């Protein structure tokens, strides 16, 4: 089962697949709808995680790209560093391009991710 795109008022959170991860790691901007400040070094780290992630085994806890719905530009990335551990905690990471900082993009994306994580039942107490 593949993870679905998560939509918010202004954003789409799209699973970061192998092809996109390869482009990020190669610095291949040709034909990409990336914000000028994307990808950052942290996004390259997320791309490396995406190359190791098996969405068929764990679709809900892989890396996601943050896309502005209005412009279609990828402005950042976020995700869980894997499913909940034995202590039932999940570590999250996120980052946005400098030009969209201060607009609530990261907050909106994180709220949507948390809704998805808690909605899976995998992190329920």
Specify the overall morphology: globular
Q: Mean pLDDT, as a whole number?
A: 86
Figure out the total of helices. Answer: 3
Number of domains: 1
- CATH-derived topology: Aminopeptidase
Number of strand segments: 5
Largest sheet: 5 strands, antiparallel
Measured between the Cα atoms of the first and last residue, the distance is 24 Å
| SSE pattern | EEHHEEEH
Rg result: 14 Å
Describe how the helices and strands are arranged.
Elements: E1 6-7, E2 11-15, H1 18-26, H2 41-52, E3 64-68, E4 74-80, E5 92-96, H3 105-119
Antiparallel strand pairs: 1-2, 2-3, 3-4, 4-5
Helix pairs in contact: 1-2
Protein name: N-acetyltransferase domain-containing protein
Pfam family, one: Acetyltransf_3
GO cellular component, one term: cytoplasm
Q: Which key terms come to mind for this protein?
A:
globular; N-acetyltransferase domain-containing protein; Aminopeptidase; alpha+beta; GNAT_dom; 125 residues; 29% helix; disordered C terminus; Ribosomal_N-acetyltransferase; Acyl_CoA_acyltransferase
What does this structure look like?
The protein has 125 residues and is α+β, with helices and mostly antiparallel strands. It has one domain: Aminopeptidase (3-Layer(aba) Sandwich), CATH 3.40.630. The protein has three helices and five strands. It has a five-stranded antiparallel β-sheet, with helices on both faces. A hairpin with a 3-residue loop joins strand 1 (6-7) and strand 2.
């Amino acid at each position: 089962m593949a993870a679905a795109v998560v939509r918010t008022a202004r954003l789409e959170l799209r699973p970061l697949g192998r092809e996109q991860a390869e482009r990020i790691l190669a610095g291949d901007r040709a034909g990409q709808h990336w914000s000028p400040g994307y990808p950052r070094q942290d996004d390259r780290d997320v791309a490396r995680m995406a190359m190791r992630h098996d969405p068929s085994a764990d679709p809900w806890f892989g890396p996601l790209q943050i896309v502005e719905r209005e412009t279609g530009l990828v402005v950042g990335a976020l995700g869980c560093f894997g499913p909940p551990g034995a202590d039932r905690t999940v570590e999250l990471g996120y980052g946005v391009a400098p030009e969209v900082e201060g607009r609530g993009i990261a907050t909106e994306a994180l709220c949507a991710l948390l809704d998805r994580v808690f909605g899976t039942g995998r992190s329920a107490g």
